[in-house]
Request: fold
Amino acid sequence: MAEEVKVFGAWGSPFSRRVELALKIKGVKYEYIEEDVYGNKSPLLLKYNPVHKKIPVFLHNGKPIAESLVIVEYIEETWKGNPILPEDPYEKAMARFWAKFVDEKCLPALWTAGFSPENERAKAAEEACECLKTLESALNGKRFFGGDTVGLVDIAANFIGYWLRLIQEATGHDLLSAEKFPALFKWSDEFVSCSVVKDSLPPRDKLLAFFKARFAGAAQTNASN
Amino acid sequence: MAEEVVLLDFWPSPFAIRVRIALAEKGIQCEYKEEDLRNKSDLLLKMNPIHKKIPVLIHNGKPVCESLIQVQYIDEVWHDKSPLLPSDPYQRAIARFWAHFVDKKIYEIGTKIWTTKGEEQAAAKKEFIESLKLLEGELGDKPYFGGDNLGYVDVALLPFYSWFYAYEKCGNFTIEEECPKLIAWAKRCLQKESVAKSLPDQKKVYGFVLQLKKAFGIE
Reply:
């Protein structure tokens, strides 16, 4: 039976790009459907993710799954080549721990630090840098969090590898720099240079323009508060 | 080699209770070390330096942190008895989705019920009931979320049942009225020894919540 694999995503979303990256690593062909997340969510999206009504949604032979890291683990378990998680239960638990740390601590802290009002910036930046410092310790001399190849944690940290650099360019505020976090900075270069990753990143100019507009919008809101 | 399993524990913590249920279901011998969270042990700080939180599962000296990660680890290592996650990848994904939902919705919103008042509390109660109803929908006609036996989502959600009495008293509402199926499910689970011995008494939890409210100056 022909496999039917679909991804409902948004071009700029690191979350739907995680799913696409996992599929590309596994060499799985899929159909991509762009959702208008700021305007009009499609009836199909609302049908397949009634609980959260968010992208990404993954469809495999008609069966839907939501939540990017849940989807990535499903992809790992369904298509066996090019593993993104270790076999050993302890190493697997460590990978899940760091993926969760990235998702629940790093990403919110980095986003807040990028777009917070002037008077809150220093504190937000300090918290974000604490996260980056902790994350750098997880690299522990490896090329990728997954070792020699991209793994679950690298996929989860895609935002840090690519989106963060563009936010820094758009806002003029550096959180991840070669001076402060040399290992993590090097990792981000390695990450975006991977052929499989390169193909699953949003276009640079379009994303930079998006962040510049967002930053200007945030500055306006902050100024009028 | 003898297995050494230690759990850094705290009796009312829903996250610790999850691990206790999983260990009991699998019949795993474990040394439970109760932590005083106002005076964290050197062992806790060493085994979970990043979050400094319980529960911490220490297996042959190696620490695993975060309750759902611990439950999955336990399921994978002690895989020959009482499986918690389904074997089918799609069913596993659905189980993980709902366990994550419990983390995001039940814990965070439940906390708002006892820490806030007025409009904020009313909104939290509404969202809490809505979330429980969604879970009831997922349970359907099955005896357990895991089907015929306790599964991953059962383990993720059950500990919060111990907190229901506290939420009800603080929020002045009855959960059973709105979600009878879920209460029936919880009582069914309590018939199991692994659950009965892992869940603290609801009134004791309420006493603990009152202490916390006093300590944090919450009315």
User: Anything to note?
Assistant: The interface with chain A takes residues 50, 59, 62, 64-66, 69-70, 72-73, 76-77, 89-90, 92-94, 96-97, 100-101, 134 of chain B (CB under 8 Å). DSSP finds ten helices and four strands in chain B.
